[in-house]
Design a protein that fits this description.
The complex is a heterodimer of chains A (434) and B (261). By secondary structure, chain A is an alpha/beta fold. Chain A is 22% helix and 36% strand. Chain B is globular and about 55 Å long. Chain B has ten helices and twelve strands. The chains are: A alpha/beta (434), B alpha/beta (261).
Chain lengths: 434, 261
């Protein structure tokens, strides 16, 4: 199906879609040529060893799904009880102005990528394709070649919007059979503080589509970014995401990656501590059931001295679900006084559930503190007995224990109303266990 | 009908028989102390009564208010009023004490056909219970036993007992690892929770807890059997003479137990 994407690119380029600024045109062309050479990754590729994308490669996904007209009420369950929060809404890959709320306050602009590319492409030129190389993966190449839309968020120096900024990528039953390639660029300038939420979700039915998202996030000196990525796509859909964060000195980045949707879901999160005294905290929670495959790859680049990274990913896998975790930490020779800690834990609720987990630390500096720990476990019978001895029935006790396992990371979500919503999602999924 | 009647109870862990014919009768209003050397089976007895999954009953029976406990799941036993204060309370990171206690309290209410209480009403109810263990409300926002000191864990067990108001409370070496202040708090708590319609079985290795919680009957377990029963002075004898003299003179075991029960 490689050719089908090449044809999509040719049609897109031919009707003017690729007719942006010259830098973009050549970037897109290089990307599709790269994809044409590489094709989709196979499990012989170390980065995709446990995750076969054959179902994606076989699917003949079209370029332009129909876009229904949605009402704000349709989105209500996904707005964290805060319809007042600024947001950009994309429906089946198309920007929906009427559902969006672009007024954020001084120093912050929210725009659709298509508008920026058409009117002021220089705004994104220093970022687009600079942080995420088109060649990073075959999927980033496809995204670069074919993306039509996405969000551009710019936060001016020292700006501190009061509310989180919410980017919603919504799929509807009409998305069935389509591939959507959202592209998001976020630029947070020096000293700014912002909370950002990316939601990938499906409204109704079990459409089978591909979301192939790329997010580039540049964090300026002394800036503070709290980034939640909430993936709850249709369980028949495929979700591939690649997020790249670049951190300048004394910046603080805190990520919470939540994944519960998709038949196959893969997220790569890379953060580069590219200047001294920066900090990155990466939290993750995934909950797979039935035949879901949920794959998280994270990479932390310690390029400079005195930086700290702290990572905790937790997974719950029920039925025949399959989880994959790969956590890389690269410490360059000059990155002395690095303090890096990585933890990943998986809880298997059924004998058929499976996790492949691989920490990968490559340390080239000598004065560093780097640790990693991975555990895979089942529910502890002694804890279960403890709860039951207090009158809590077995099923409820086990659900409480699973919830407790998740809660340790859920509690790290900064926004109370986001945390409450995720709590509820975990409880809903828990009610389906057994 | 006695509150608890244990008849010739035998229990195994895997292939190993640990309880080898225990007989014990407890009536409401009573405090029984069970003492014995390490490995004698005294903690096992408490855990078997509470339904610990590591043990299988291989003979005899446990009647609680006339019901055969072997037929009941641990949660059903708790709902019926059996409570085990654990020797090693389990840590449950991620669940607050408040959530856990309310969940347990509501399960007990549900089992009795009562309405569940909401978080606000539950906090009111807790206020008095916290006084029993001399704690402020902050403790309720901490995860269950997570990072608690040994003494705090034991106090938390007593707090749970205060909230759940069991009829039969089994305290499994609640005094072990406690400093003198924590011991006093635990003992005062237990005494405050005594009622004419409940009973305690206090399992301990040492006599010192029994200076604060005065037992009506003291039993000595050795090698899976009760080898001697007597009044509270027996505990003082044991303190002075150790356990060795008992293990050797195993006469009249059943007779003594029956006479004091």
């Amino acid at each position: 199906m490689i050719d089908s994407y090449v044809r999509q690119y040719q049609a897109f380029a031919g009707n003017g879609g690729g007719a942006g600024p010259p830098w973009l045109t050549s970037l897109r062309r290089a990307a599709i040529e790269g994809f044409q050479r590489s094709g989709f990754p196979s499990t012989r590729d170390e980065e995709w060893r446990f995750t076969s994308v054959a179902p994606i490669a076989r699917g003949d996904f079209s370029a332009s799904p129909a876009v229904p007209v949605l009402q704000l009420a349709d989105l209500d369950p996904y707005l964290f009880q805060h319809p007042d929060w600024p947001r950009l809404v994309f429906v089946n890959g198309r920007f929906d102005r009427s559902l969006s709320l672009g007024e954020v306050g001084p120093g912050v602009t929210l725009e659709a990528l298509s508008a920026v590319l058409a009117q002021r492409p220089t705004l994104v030129e220093p970022y687009f394709g600079r942080h995420v190389s088109p060649a990073a993966t075959p999927f980033t190449a496809l995204n670069t070649a074919l993306t039509r839309e996405g969000a551009v968020v710019r936060v001016a120096p020292d700006a501190a919007p009061e509310n989180p900024i919410h980017l919603l990528f919504v799929s509807t039953p009409e998305a069935d059979g389509a591939a959507i390639h959202p592209r998001t660029v976020v630029v947070v300038e020096a000293g700014a503080r912002v909370q950002l939420i990316e939601s990938y979700l499906s409204l109704g039915g079990r459409p089978r589509y591909l979301t192939n998202a790329v997010t580039e996030l540049a964090i300026g000196p002394g800036a503070w970014v709290e980034h939640s990525r909430i993936q709850r796509e249709s369980e028949a859909a495929f979700h591939v995401g690649f997020s790249q964060v670049s951190q300048d000195r004394e910046s603080h980045y805190r990520s919470f990656a939540f994944a519960m949707g998709g038949a196959l879901a893969r997220h790569d999160l890379h953060t580069r501590l590219g200047a001294p005294d920066t900090e990155a905290l990466l939290y993750g929670l995934y909950f797979g059931h039935q035949d879901q495959l949920i794959d998280n790859h994270t990479t932390i680049y310690h390029d400079q001295p005195n930086c700290r990274s702290w990572e905790v990913y937790k997974g719950i896998l029920d039925d025949r679900a399959h989880g994959v975790f790969n956590g890389k930490i690269f410490v360059k020779p000059e990155a002395q006084k690095t303090d890096a800690k990585q933890t990943n834990r998986a809880l298997l609720l059924s004998d058929s559930a499976r996790i492949d987990t691989k920490p990968q630390l490559e340390i080239f500096a000598d004065d560093v503190k780097c640790t990693h720990g991975a555990t895979v476990g089942q529910l502890d019978p002694l804890s279960s007995f403890y709860l039951r001895s207090r009158g809590i029935p077995k099923d409820a006790a086990e659900r409480l224990m699973v919830y407790a396992f998740a809660a340790e990371v859920l509690n790290e979500v900064a926004s109370e109303s986001v945390r409450v919503a995720l709590d509820q999602l975990v409880h809903e999924r828990l009610s389906m266990v057994r | 009908m006695p509150l608890l009647e244990v008849n010739d109870l035998r229990a195994t862990a895997g292939d190993k028989e640990i309880l080898k014919g225990i007989n014990l009768t407890v009536d409401v209003g009573e405090i029984h102390a069970i003492m014995g050397p390490n490995g004698s089976g005294k903690s096992t007895l408490a855990q078997v009564i509470a339904g610990h999954p590591a043990y299988q009953i291989s003979g005899g029976q446990i009647l609680y208010q006339g019901q055969d406990l072997a037929e009941m799941d641990p949660e059903e036993r708790a709902q019926a009023g059996v409570f085990l204060a654990f020797q090693y309370p389990v840590e449950i990171p991620g669940v607050t004490n408040a959530y856990f206690l309310r969940a347990a309290y509501n399960e007990l209410r549900k089992a009795r056909g009562l309405e569940e209480v909401d978080p606000i009403d539950f906090l009111d109810l807790l206020e008095d219970k916290l006084k029993v263990v001399e704690w402020g409300p902050e403790i309720m926002q901490r995860a269950v036993n997570a990072g608690f000191s040994g003494g705090e864990k034991k106090r938390n067990e007593i707090l749970q007992m205060a909230v759940l108001e069991p009829k039969l409370a089994l305290l499994d070496e609640t005094d072990s690892g406690l400093d003198i202040d924590a011991l006093r708090i635990v003992a005062t708590g237990v005494n405050a929770l005594r009622r004419p319609d409940n009973a305690y079985v206090v399992i301990t290795h040492y006599q010192r807890l029994l200076n604060h919680i005065i037992p009506d009957v003291v039993h000595v377990i050795s090698d899976g059997q009760i080898v001697k029963s007597g009044g509270k002075d027996l505990a003082l004898d044991l303190e002075a003479r150790g356990y060795e003299w008992l293990a050797k003179s195993d006469t009249d075991v059943a007779g003594t137990a029956a006479a004091t029960a």
